[in-house]
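Protocol step 4 of 5: obtain the predicted structure for the target chain.
Materials: sequence only (see below). No template structures provided, no constraints applied. The aim of this step is simply to have a reference model before the mutagenesis design in step 5. Sequence pasted as it appears in the construct record:
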Amino acid sequence: MLGYKEAQHEEYDPESSQLFVSRLACSLAGKTMRIQIKEGSQAFKWYGGKDAEENYYCSFGINPDFKPELNHPDVVFSGVDHDGDVRIIEINKNDFFISTLFVPQTKSTKGNPHTLIRGFIQEALRHC
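Step 4 output (structure tokens):
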């Protein structure tokens, strides 16, 4: 979509010159953090509000060097932490394309799935 055929995640290809996801200076593994949700976004629709608290199990995030490259009319930074770092990205031309830098399934149970997982399932069922 952005024209970067070699875009990579540092965990999978640390030698890539186009690391859109890179190792954080300070790991978030084992932390719980608040996220501000952008009103009008898909995430806002499913969370039903402007903030959430999520669990992190990784040490990677959006490479700040490439953040301007992600400035595209179809890409929405719909969730940020208290430092303004991107935690949820969406593609708004898709009924449900939400990418997170936290792990929603850790807050899910069989009887009470995470709100984003519930949203994904509802959208999938709507297209069956």
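Step 4 remarks: Residues 35 and 83 are 10 Å apart (CA to CA). The two ends are 26 Å apart (CA to CA).
Proceed to step 5.
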